[in-house]
Amino acid sequence: MTLRKPPATPQTPATPQTPAAPQTPVVPPPPPRWAVLAAHLTALVVLPSGLWRIALVLGHPAGYTEAGFEPFATVDAKIWMLTLTVAGELVALLTIGLVRPWGEVVPRWIPLIGGRRVRPLAAVVPAALGAVGLTLIWAAVPFWWTYPHADLTATGNLVVGILYQPLFLWGPLTAAVTVSYYRRHRVRGRG
Prior knowledge:
This protein is an all-alpha fold. The chain has helices at 33-57, 66-69, 75-94, 120-138, 154-164, 170-185.
């Protein structure tokens, strides 16, 4: 068995290649003022109901009758209400990232991904799904007073209804800020 040399291929003359110009990242325009305001409002609309739940955690009946407050006196219920309050506020604060630089570049202190650019769809898809979910969850809040609340006092029913009304705006505000983020970060067509 003999090894043959492969046939020679004609060489083409080397063409000088010009170095590619360094690509500068496209900087999106700043968010409109209304979007910045809407993003900050999302954190505020969650606050009244959160403060009410903290009052329950601290042992104040906050509008409940004695029998109605009894299930909220357990340690498990207090942990749940505190967790719900903190998680809700943190999720609402994430909306601010859609109008701040940390919504465009991951902060450097975050392990593994710090300093990387945020892909627009990585922010838009969860924010849009969250906006739809929040809108559906809180859509019935304006009708609070049409439902019976036997475990609340008359004053408690009024106060709790008022404290929960702002949550109706959480989904639409998040949706508006998400659309603004998407419009600022979408890939521009060539032409």
